[in-house]
Fold this protein.
Amino acid sequence: MKIRNRIALQFSLIVASILLTFSLIIYFTTATFSREDFYERLKKKARTTARFLIQVNEVDQNLLKIIDRNTLTALYDEKVLVFDEQNRLIYASVDDQIIHYQRSLLDEVRQQKEVETWSDENQLVGIAYEEGGRNLVILASAYDRVGRNKQKNLRFTLIWGLAGGIGLTIGLGIFFAGQSLRPIDEINTQISTITARNLRQRLDEGDRRDEIDQLAVNFNAVLGRLEQAFEQQRSFVSHASHELRTPLASLKSELQLGLRRRLDAAEYEDILSNLLSDTDRLIGLTNSLLFLARTLENISQMPLAPVQMEEVVLLARDELLSAKPQYRVEFDYDNLPQSETETTVSGNEELLKRVILNLMDNACKYSADHTAHVRIGTDDRSCWVSVRDQGIGLAPEETELIFEPFHRAANAVGYEGFGIGLSICQRIIELHQGRISVESRLGEGSQFVVHLNHL
Ligand code: ADP
């Protein structure tokens, strides 16, 4: 069922039940009042007749009948019967019609003094009347024509009012629900035209005030992020293919060279060693790409544990120096805090080691003295590790770009590398809710600082 119809239906059901409840209350309260009122009138009538009978001793019964029938207050189909102490009928306001009553009713009236009941369609009251030493029982019955007519009119008015009210509610419900949901229909139509090819398209945000405008604003923000992610993915794929093609092309030309003519053993050896280094390069590149893809994927599953940053730095240094013994890593312990907890962060040791290793490797690689200067320090909230070198440095406009995948500064030509390491570092630090920054001067050196919240 459409939301519009559902809202209209729910709204109508609520209004209909309220109207119905009110109508029933009004109807039954009026009916009760009218019945009670009529019983009161019947009682008055009964007492008046009895009074006449007793006080005017010799009253002519025929005259009383005529008075009974012709008074202004005469009720429709009115009958009054008066019984003496022995339950003998001593007066009846009508001759031909009789009230249907049970003898036991008279006893009940004597016992209870007043009884209200029904005789067919007519209301009937019985009252015990004591005056002048006489104990009479009077039964009076009549049909409440005015009251019944009023009730009939009320019923008619309520039923039609109710039907009209419900009909109107359904109509208005559908109309207003449709009006309020129309912007959603419009948004739906706009969304259905958005595909991966036209992610630049945006939804109409109206005046950005109501909830639906806010929905459009948020949806546009999501579209913006999607567009950016698509763009990054596109450039990543094109860069990755480019990087993979270069060593593959070089592999191919080495192989062609080997096949073109017969070579001596030394030349073959030369070609094979070139092939090996190109293959190593390819393996290194694919490993980095794989790693980057995995760290992007496994954001939520990364296991976190307390990690000692001094420990991480030492592990990274050992790993770097065992792979590249010509490099040097120097520590400056000046800022190292006394307490170990200040240098303990919550994270993944393996990933953090990879970051520090990469920064040390770069510092050594891009400096003539192949030396990285490392410092660890803390402030109120974070623990920081800085890796400084006195190498080739970076032009100011490059400092932001080097964190993009595959971006290499102009002065890095001639140095080995793919331009992926720093983007992996940044990704890892972001996963740890930290930040990585760089300060650098072209030709003078660079300093990379990693900030992580300590425990
Ligand atoms: P790679 O070093 O493999 O090229 P990275 O992602 O680690 O890839 O670095 C990206 C680029 O940032 C490098 O190509 C280089 O231009 C620049 N860079 C990184 N570290 C330094 C540094 N310590 N000194 C100067 N330039 C650096």
Remarks:
- The domain at 3-150 is CATH 3.30.450.20 (Beta-Lactamase).
- The mean pLDDT is 88.
- Residues 358, 362-363, 366, 389, 391-394, 402, 408-409, 412, 417-423, 446 surround adenosine-5'-diphosphate (CB under 6 Å).
- DSSP finds ten helices and twelve strands in the chain.
